[in-house]
Design a protein that fits this description.
Pfam families: SH2, STAT_alpha, STAT_bind, STAT_int, STAT_linker. By secondary structure, this protein is an alpha+beta fold. The chain contains 25 helices and 22 strands. The strands form six sheets. The chain has a five-stranded mixed sheet with strand order 16-15-14-19-20. The protein has a four-stranded antiparallel sheet with strand order 1-3-7-5. Strands 6-4-9-10 form a four-stranded antiparallel sheet. The longest helix has 58 residues.
Length: 743
């Protein structure tokens, strides 16, 4: 079943989450129509390879054209219209930056996998539950409603100022008319009546001036209250969601909504500022005793400028945290002399600022590192697919400076992976007479000089962003706080859902909890130290818990990914639990689990029954990445043979736990079917006959454990095919056993 088909079967609450990340950047109808094709492409690799991304973009457009031809024949007008719109979008927005669409699709597929993993969990994790708080959603709606109301109030005040201007012009005209009359004419009764009318008009002017100033004051107060409370909370929540997303959590949305709010508030404040300027202009033409403008206007203008300064400062954010293109799922870990990308956005989107703001990137203030590459760029609205005012640095690379003694400080394999640094950005906005200096920083990053340091550096990033919402605590690891075990386990599940496409279920998480704590625990409120997670070796082992887990992630990614995504690898189960699960099952039932004693190893255990009725268990020595590079794991399971005491090889693996026939579970992952092996005439390269490797173990009478799976018997495809044509299976296995006895 395709991933998209699984998504469509989710409950409505999960479908609503899916709906949130499909928009005009990547319309859902394309995801639906091209589901299988999209899932068969390597978008993650294309996100870091411009040539590959361009090819995939061109192929995507070809796929859309084919769909367009099909629906044109069906005369589906609505779908024809939507597909033409999508085709125009793909050609227009992404032609100059094809990697952007690859990033978008890769993220969408990753988020689908995370939601599918979350849906399979019986209970939502504490972190994810907090991110989807109904109170937060209600506040978002309130913010948008209040911003809209403020914008309307500012526009209504514009009309009041215009009425005031018209009223003053009429007063000015009538007053000047009277002033131009001769003295004798001024004493007439008609003129005296006109003077009384002018006095009434002046009283109305005074009332209207006070009313306009009062309305302006209320708009300013509403903006102040909104910025101080709900908008600030919204921005902090978005930054926290970004932290969680960086360590594998749900993709964070809401930045476009925040941009809309910031932009509308900025437009309202500039509108109020123009209204105050108009009042100043009216003041120069007419003033009087008790005039409220000279008293109130300076204070209001000062408050407007103050709010604009704060609004601009808060609007300068890091939209996408620093990340090496070679490791897109390990952001904030930067390797010296390797390029990384980072994207910034100004949430106040005004056309006047396009290409007018130049951003400078720097690193730390301790002069240990410098940034090489283009570190000054202008923000613009053309590079982003959504037209935001942003800038993306794509060619920055950190370099460690030499010490005064001429050697580099910590560069090399011993660079401290708990040392945090910060990428800082500064710029200046000049608009309508205001000059505002803006600064922002990335989340803390870890510098490495060797890829071997990546696992521990990533552990530091996980622990920091799990434990604190402080964006700039660079001394965090001087005294790292403990983490709640339930939250840590949730984040560990995210590592699997984001990196290898399937998260962990409650049983798998329980096993990890036991491994961390050394016993069965109720881990809801348990606190785990940083040292226990990443510094101290596991009991009786030469490696830490995190190194063990990271090696498993690497094993899954490179060697057993399809099997893991299908859910056929139980993986995290102790030997004791394994035997409890298998003891009552049909002989030949097996399960797959990760080795607890070997880094990056996977083994299988099957249950068997002795002649006296006793149950016995057999576990093969773990397969590591070296062996799995030579032979796919699914083929190992298909071809695995055991030589019993009577020297007759047989495959003991019949049913995947609990009762799935082996070929039904793994058949689609076999590299070739046995009856598809080449004939002798096919030959091999350079005159050699191709060989096929069959994994074989031998169980001795005094042992319940097979020998190493490294005992791989080579048998050429041609020999195997001939044997199948002329001999029975029993005869073939007898021939194999004979070869064993002479090897």
């Amino acid at each position: 079943m395709s991933q998209w088909s699984q998504v469509q079967q989710l409950e409505i609450k999960f479908l609503e989450q899916v709906d949130q990340f499909y928009d005009d950047n990547f319309p859902m109808e394309i995801r639906h129509l091209l589901a299988q094709w999209i899932e068969s492409q390597d978008w993650e690799a294309a996100a870091n390879n411009e040539a590959m991304a361009m090819i995939l973009l061109q192929n995507l457009i070809i796929q859309v054209d084919e769909q367009l031809d099909r629906v044109s024949q069906e005369k589906n007008l609505l779908l024809i219209h939507n597909l033409k719109r999508v085709r125009k979008l793909l050609q227009g927005k992404y032609h100059g930056n094809p990697m952007h669409i690859a990033v978008i699709i890769s993220n969408c597929l990753r988020e689908e996998r995370r939601i599918l993993a979350a849906a399979s969990m019986p209970v939502q994790g504490p972190l994810e539950k907090s991110l989807q708080n109904s109170v937060v959603s209600e506040r978002q709606r309130n913010v948008e409603h209040k911003v809209s109301a403020i914008k309307n109030s500012a526009q209504m005040t514009d009309q009041d100022v215009k009425y005031l201007e018209d009223l003053q012009e009429e007063f000015d005209f009538r007053y000047k008319t009277i002033q131009s009359l001769e003295q004798n004419d001024k004493n007439s009764a008609l003129i005296k009546q006109e003077m009384l009318a002018l006095q009434a008009m002046l009283n109305t002017l005074d009332y209207k001036r006070k009313e306009v100033l009062s309305k302006i004051g209320r708009v300013i107060h509403e903006i102040d209250m909104l910025m101080s409370n709900m908008l600030t909370e919204e921005l902090l929540d978005w930054k926290r969601r970004q932290q969680i997303a960086c360590i594998g959590g749900p993709l964070h949305g809401g930045l476009d909504q925040l941009q809309n709010c910031f932009t509308l508030l900025a437009e309202s404040l500039f509108q109020v500022r123009r209204q105050l300027e108009k009042l100043d202009e009216l003041l120069t033409r007419l003033t009087y005793d008790g005039d409220p403008i000279p008293v109130q206007r300076p204070q209001l203008l000062e408050k407007v400028n103050f709010l604009l300064y704060n609004l601009f400062r808060n609007s300068f954010v890091v939209e996408r945290q620093p990340c090496m293109p070679t490791h897109p799922q390990r952001p904030m870990v930067l390797k010296t002399l390797i390029q990384f990308t980072v994207k910034l956005r100004l949430l106040i989107k005004l056309p006047e600022l396009n290409y007018q703001i130049r951003v400078k990137a720097t690193i730390d203030n301790n002069r240990r590192f410098v940034l090489c590459g283009t570190h000054v760029k202008a923000m613009n609205m053309d590079e982003s697919a959504n037209g935001s005012l942003s800038v993306e640095f794509r060619h920055l690379q950190p370099k460690e400076m030499k010490t005064s003694a001429g050697s580099k400080g910590n560069e090399g394999p011993h660079m401290v992976t708990e040392e945090l640094h910060s990428i800082s950005f500064e710029t200046q906005v000049c608009l309508y007479g205001l000059t505002i200096n803006l600064e922002t920083s990335s989340l803390p990053v870890v510098m490495i000089s060797n890829v071997s340091q990546l696992p521990n550096a990533w552990a530091s990033i996980i622990w920091y962003n799990l434990s604190t919402n402080d964006p700039q605590n660079l001394s965090f690891f001087n005294n790292p706080p403990a983490a709640t075990l339930s939250q840590l386990l949730e984040v560990l599940s995210w590592q699997f859902s984001s990196y290898v496409g399937r998260g962990l279920n409650s049983e798998q998480l329980n096993m990890l909890a036991e491994k961390l704590m050394g016993q069965q625990v109720s881990y809801n409120d348990y606190q785990l130290s940083w040292a226990k997670f990443c510094k101290e070796h596991l009991p009786g082992k030469s490696f830490t818990f995190w190194v063990w887990l990271e090696a498993i992630l690497d094993l899954i990614k490179k060697h057993i990914l399809p099997l893991w995504i299908d859910g056929y690898v139980m993986g995290f189960v102790s030997k004791e639990k394994e035997r409890i699960l298998l003891k009552d099952k049909t002989p030949g039932t097996f399960l797959l689990r990760f080795s607890e004693s070997n880094l990056g190893g996977i083994t299988f255990t099957w249950v068997d029954q002795l002649e006296n009725g006793d149950v016995t268990f057999h576990s093969v020595e773990p397969y590591n990445k070296g062996r799995l590079s030579a032979l796919p794991f699914a083929d190992i399971l298909r071809d695995y043979k055991v030589i019993m005491a009577d020297n007759v090889p047989e495959n003991p693996l019949k049913y995947l736990y609990p009762d799935i026939p082996k070929d039904k579970a793994f058949g689609k992952h076999y590299s070739c079917q046995p009856n598809e092996v080449s004939k002798p005439s096919d030959g091999g390269g350079k005159g050699y006959v191709p060989s096929v490797f069959i994994p074989v173990s031998k169980i001795l009478n005094d042992s319940t454990e097979p020998h190493s799976p490294s005992d791989l018997l080579p048998m050429s495809p041609s020999v195997y095919a001939v044997l199948r044509e002329h001999l029975s299976p029993t005869a073939i296995e007898t021939a194999v056993s004979c070869k064993l006895s002479h090897s």
